[in-house]
Amino acid sequence: MYAVLFADTGLSPAAISSLFVIWSVTAFGFEVPSGLWADLFSRRLLLVASPLLAGAGFGLWAFFPSYPAFAAGFVLWGVGSALRSGTTQALVYEELERVGATGVYARLFGRSESVSLLAVVAASAVASPVLAVGGYRALGAASVAACAACAVAGCFLPETRVPGGDGQEPSPGSVVREGWAQVRREPAVRWALVLVTVLEGVTSLDEYVPLLVRSTGVAEASVPLLVLVVTVGDAVGGWLAGRGAAWLAPVLAVGGGAWRWGR
Fold this sequence. Notes:
By secondary structure, this protein is mainly α. It has helices at residues 2-8, 13-31, 34-40, 43-63, 67-98, 105-154, 172-185, 187-203, 209-214, 223-239, 248-262. The relative contact order is 0.13. Helix 2 packs parallel to helix 5 (67-98), helix 3 (34-40) packs across helix 5 (67-98) and helix 4 (43-63) crosses helix 6. The protein is built from eleven helices and no strands.
C-alpha cells in the first residue's frame, strides 16, 4: 500500500517513480559487495540487521509522511534488501553443502520464496481491515512489528562457518573495483549486467499495481485484496521453480495475451 500512501500524500506519478528509482539504485549499488559482506561478517548478524533497516524505513513512512522520509525509507530498505539477498543465498547453499544436499538448492530456495509470498498474501488480507480501522499509521506499526519479528527469527538461523575466514579476503573496495574492471573488459559480463538491470526494471512494474487497482475506483480498503491476485501468481511461480520448465513459454504467452486483452 505504500504506493497508494505516496499518492495520498500528494506526490505526483513522476515523484513516485523517482522514489522507485532511488530504491532500485540503492539496492543495486549495495548488491555488488553484499556477497563479500556475507564472507567477512556473521551472516546471522546481517540477516538480523536487514529487516531492522527496512522496519526503520517503514516507520519513517507511517509517522513522517513526506518525500524526504519516503526517500530515506527506500534507502534503508534497499540496503537491507542487499544485505539479505547475498547473505541468504550464501548461508543456504553452504549449509546444504555441509550436509551433501546442494542438488535441492533451487527447489528449496524457490519454495522459501513461495512461503514468503504466502506471508505477503496473508498480510495483504489483514491489511484491508487494518487500513479501514487504523489507517496508514496502523499499517506502518504492523509492518515495523513484522520486521522486528523477522530480526528475532534471524537470531535462530544456523551458522557453522567462522566469520572472516582466514583473514585473507580482499577489501570491499578492491572487489568492487575488480568487478567494474571485468565489466569494462568482458563484453559477456557487460551484457549480462545489462540483462539483469533490464529484468529488475521490468519486475519493478509490480510496484504500480496498487495504483492501477485504485484507479479502477474501488474503495481504498479493498486495494490490498485485489492486489492478492498478482501476489498469488508470484507464489505459485516460486513454488514451481526448478520444475515444469517446458510450460514456461506457453504460460508466458497466455499471460501476455491476457494482459493485452485486459488493456
